[in-house]
Design goal:
The complex is a heterodimer. Chain A is mainly alpha-helical. Chain A is built from eight helices and no strands. In chain A, helix 1 crosses helix 3. Chain A starts with 6 loop residues before the first helix and ends in a 17-residue tail after the last helix. The relative contact order of chain A is 0.11. Chain B has five helices and eight strands, in the order αααββαββββββα. By secondary structure, chain B is α+β, with helices and mostly antiparallel strands. The N and C termini of chain B lie far apart (55 Å). Helix content of chain B is 24%, strand content 24%. In chain B, strands 1, 2, 3, 4, 5, 6, 7 and 8 form an eight-stranded mixed β-sheet that branches. Classes of the chains: A mainly alpha, B alpha+beta. At the A-B interface, helix 1, helix 2, helix 3, helix 6 and helix 8 of A face helix 1, helix 2 and strand 3 of B.
């Protein structure tokens, strides 16, 4: 940001950014939000990214080449938009509706993962988010720190603790099938 | 259960695992945004001499207060790109000094003097501008977001931290620094409740 960018340059930057981050952000939200809210929160996230295009670290005048440089910050924005949407939703819904919804809404759809879902539900929200950013978004502690605003050290500690807690909960119930297939590579973006 | 097994187990339960994930239409999303949002920064439109468009609720509240506030519309705030964010308010930060420590402790009576009071969470900070998401209006507003602006390039805004909740009072479009505006604590919340809700 040595000199003000023109509107055309800003738009080009945003388009380059959007093409790198939209799919991963969509996935991030699908993993955490109600299915019918995902598109709205994604649009809101992109709106924030557009308004703050000059603040996004890793976005320069050239084309965005490194998703790893921009994604953690963008996940952080999506996380904030998701939190706002949840707050708005909580205010909107009456208690009865809320209870009905909570009862009906599985966070993880596949039924054969109900045990894992229950175990994740018993982690505190921040531990769960740190764990899922590691497992589902495939982020390193340093990147999780950028998403969550924690220090990298605090992330490492939380991650270690969350893994341990989850392993204990699952192990106690013999939850992990022996020889479970890994299926695919590390990065899950 | 070691790390690899745990990772595999978690991945197997990923609700957005690539084979099943529908792809968002990035091109369409960008186009939709660009047709409604032409400027990269929120545009603050002062109400003086210019009424806010679209915002019936904001206009009604402004009328109750007497029009002294500087109401603002975030560009495109009422459009489809931001359905949960239909209106916003812009306030100026006033008086030098920091929020904490230099003011006499607020009382229910001193708080009641303000026509505008809310509790909000800081969602963004940029330079001297602070965006708050309103968690609760005690008095005087309906907007979901409030922008605090500091025109004089002072550094009061640095007292606000992203993610923190604050109790804010305002009058005449200004947030006076000794008006009881502070970080939300159980104590300050109960003071605000006592002032505005009893």
């Amino acid at each position: 940001m040595t000199q003000p960018a023109t509107a055309r340059e800003l738009r080009a930057r945003f388009e380059a950014l959007a093409h790198v981050v939209t799919v991963p952000l969509h996935r991030y939200l699908r993993r955490r939000a109600d299915a019918d809210a995902v598109d709205d929160i994604l649009a809101e996230t992109l709106l924030v990214l557009w308004r703050r295009i000059e603040d996004v670290p890793g976005v320069t005048a050239g084309p965005v080449t490194d998703p790893d440089a921009v994604l953690p910050w963008c996940y952080g924005v999506a996380r904030g938009c998701l939190a706002n949407a949840r707050r708005a939703e909580r205010r909107r819904l009456s208690l009865v509706e809320r209870l009905t919804r909570t009862a009906q809404r599985p966070q993880i759809v596949a039924t054969d993962h109900s045990e894992l879902q229950a175990a994740l539900g018993r982690l505190n929200a921040l531990d769960r988010e740190v764990l899922l950013l590691w497992a589902w978004e495939g982020l390193a502690p340093r990147q999780i720190a950028e998403v969550s605003g924690l220090t990298a050290n605090a992330v490492s500690i939380r991650l270690h603790r969350a893994k341990k807690k989850l392993a204990v909960m699952l192990g106690r119930k013999d939850g992990i099938p022996a020889g479970h297939e890994t299926g695919e590579g590390r990065s899950n973006r | 259960v070691n790390d690899d097994e745990l990772l595999a187990y978690l991945k197997a339960a990923d609700p957005a695992a690539p084979p099943h994930a529908p792809q968002p239409d990035t091109h369409r999303l960008v186009e939709a945004l660009m047709t409604t949002e032409t400027k990269p920064q929120p545009v603050v439109i002062p109400a003086r001499g210019r009424r806010p468009r679209l915002l019936v609720a904001a206009a009604a509240t402004a009328a109750i207060i007497g029009g002294g506030l500087s109401w603002a519309v975030t560009a495109g705030g009422g459009d489809a790109a931001a359905p949960t964010n239909p209106s916003s308010v812009s306030l100026a930060l006033a008086a030098p000094g920091t929020i904490v420590g230099k003011c006499a402790a607020p009382t229910t009576d001193s708080l009641r003097a303000y026509p505008l009071a809310f509790e909000g969470t800081v969602t963004a900070k940029q330079g001297d501008r602070v965006d708050l998401h309103v968690d609760h209006w005690f008095r005087g507003g309906t907007a979901e977001t409030v922008h605090l602006d500091n025109d004089e390039q002072r550094s009061e805004a640095s007292a606000f931290e992203i993610g923190q909740r604050y109790l804010v009072t305002a009058a005449d479009g200004m947030v006076p620094m000794c008006g009881g505006t502070s970080e939300a604590t159980a104590e300050s919340e109960s003071l605000f409740r006592a002032a505005f809700e009893q």
